[in-house]
Specification:
The protein is an alpha+beta fold and 136 residues long. It has a single domain, classed as Sandwich (protein yfey like fold), CATH 2.60.460. The chain contains two helices and 13 strands; from the N terminus they run βββαββββββαββββ. Strands 4-5-6-7-13-12-11-10 form an eight-stranded antiparallel β-sheet, with helices on one face. Strands 1-2-3 form a three-stranded antiparallel β-sheet, with no helix packed on it. Strands 8-9 form a two-stranded antiparallel ribbon. The two termini are 24 Å apart.
Amino acid sequence: MELTYKPQLQIGPICLGMSRADARQILGRQWTEFKKNEFSQSTTDAYDELGIYIYYDVHDIVKGVETFPESKLAINGLQLFGKGLREISVLLGGLGFQSEETSSGINFLNGSLRFYAPDYDENADAKVESIYVVFP
């Protein structure tokens, strides 16, 4: 599945304000429901075959989507998995996206688009392992 990103509104078929039931119906695939950690107030749906996790608030409304390489996420037509964070920063910076560095990656759009690379604090060219999209 190839996902496209519309800032703060949509990632693939998943959009702002969507319910868990609607997300499950649209994706129509096998999912695994789990708690991300002991502090989670709601469960997460993992669609491993599609390379996405969907996070929900306590009312079962989508609050974020984490993507992995299998998702083939494209942002403004750019495939970003397999690229290093420094290259991503340059590519998205050229499109006008402002970046903010963190200890584990780079955030864009005031933190609503987060690129995670666990080795980033040691290597600015670390490869992206996941991209997290936050819905406001």
